[in-house]
Amino acid sequence: MTNTNSAIDYLSCPRCAAKRSPHVVNQLCECGSPLLVRYDLKKAAESLKKSDLSGRAKDLWRYRELLPVEREENIVSLGEGFTPSLPLKTAGAEAGLSELYIKDEGITPTGTFKSRGAAVGVSKAKELGVRTLIMPTNGNAGAAWALYGARAGIDVKIIMPEDAPVITRNECAAAGADLRLVKGLISDCGKIVARSVLANGWFDASTLKEPYRIEGKKTMGFEIAEQFGWDPPDAILYPTGGGVGIIGMFKAFQELSEMGWISGKPPKLVAVQAEGCAPIVKAFEAGESESEFWKDSKTVAFGINVPKALGDFLALEAVRETDGCAVAVSDAEILMAMPELARMEGVFVCPEGAALYAAVKRLSKTGWIKKNDRVVMLNTGAGIKYSNVLNFSPPYIDADERL
Asked: What residues pair up with 371 in beta bridges, in sequence order?
C-alpha cells in the first residue's frame, strides 16, 4: 500500500472546539456543528514544496498532502480538478473591469464542481469502510456522488426534489443509485435522509454532515492561487447555496497562508444568491451570524435554491473575514447573463454561474469592485446541463431556400 503523505491531523468543531479522530466515521459534532479537517501544516510545508507541483498530474490530487485520504489505493478519481481560469476581456470591458476571469467547472467529469467534493468525499468514505451512503440533493451533487460511488463500489441512495433537472435524475439512475423523488424542497429531502440514517445506520453524505466534501471543494482555492502565480485575485464570486465552496476556499487560503505559500490579504469572497432564495444575503445585510429559513424559495438557479444552509455561519464568517460581501440578483438578470457570456466569450455557463456575471456588473456599477481589480467568477457547472432554462425560438427556413 502506498501512502499519500497526507498531513491530516484531526477533526475539529468550529463552535465548541471539540476534536475527533479522522480514522473513524464522523458526522456532525455532538453540538450539532459541522466538523472541519485540520492538518499538520508545518509537516506539510516541510514535505511539499511549490516546485514539487510541476511534475504532478493536473488534477486536484496534486495537493494530496493537504487532502484527507491517506492511502493511494483508496483514491477514487475520474480526472477531476485543475479547471482553467479564463480571461474574459469582452465581458470584463462590458462590466467596466480590466481583469475579469472565469474558473470554469463545467468541464469536470460530471459537468459541475460537485465532482471535487464527490471525489474526496467518496474516497475517504471508501477508506473508512463505508458501504452505503445517502444524501439529499438539488441534482448535481447527487449525480456526482452516484457516479463516484459506482466507481468505488459503494451503494448510493439519493433523495431529490421532483423539480430537479431531468438530466441529473438520469445520471443518478444510470449510475445505479437508489433514487427517490420528493414533492417538496431540498429541506424536505434532508428530513427524509435524517430519518433514514437514524433507522438504518447509513452514512449521511448531506452537505457538511460529513467533513470531507469541503476538502475537495477547497482545491478550487489552491488552483486559483497556483494559476495566478501564488498572487491570488482581489475578489472571487461564488454562487452560494449550501456554501461549501466558499467555506472551502476560505479554508484553502488560510492553509496556504499558514504554510507561507501566499502573503497579504486573501481574496474578498462574494456570496451570490438569487432574489427568490437569499437567506445568506439577508443575514449578511442584517449583521447576523446565521440565516433564517427562507420561505417559499424559488429560482431558475436551482443549485442555489437552499432555504437554510447547515454551514451558513461558516459561509458568513468567510465573507466577513475577507472583507467580502453578499449580493442577490434576479432571475431575469440570470437569464440575461447566460446568453450574454455565451455570445461575448463563447462560455456557456449554468444559471448559478450566470448569477455571478449579473452580480459583477452590479458591484462594478456601485464601485464596490474597482476597474483594475482582478476578479474571478467561479462558474459551478456547464450550461448544457440546464437546457430547459433557456427557451429560444429560431425562425424556420424551407429546404429549397437559402440565406
From this structure: none
What are 252's three cell numbers? 484553502
pTM: 0.95
CATH code, domain carrying 309: 3.40.50.1100
Collect all residues with Cβ–Cβ distance below 8 Å to 346 and sequence separation of at least 6: none
Return the SS3 of 312.
Answer: helix
- Rounded alpha-carbon distances, angstroms, from residue 96 to 69, 236, 257, 362: 43, 16, 31, 10
Cβ atoms 318, 254 nearer than 8 A: no
Bridge partners of 236? 269, 376
Total domains present in the chain: 1
Does the residue 75 lie in any domain?
no
Average pLDDT, consecutive stretches of 10 residues, N- to C-terminus, the chain (403 residues): 91 97 96 97 94 95 98 97 97 98 96 97 98 94 97 98 91 97 92 96 96 98 98 98 96 97 96 98 98 95 93 97 98 97 97 98 98 98 89 91 92
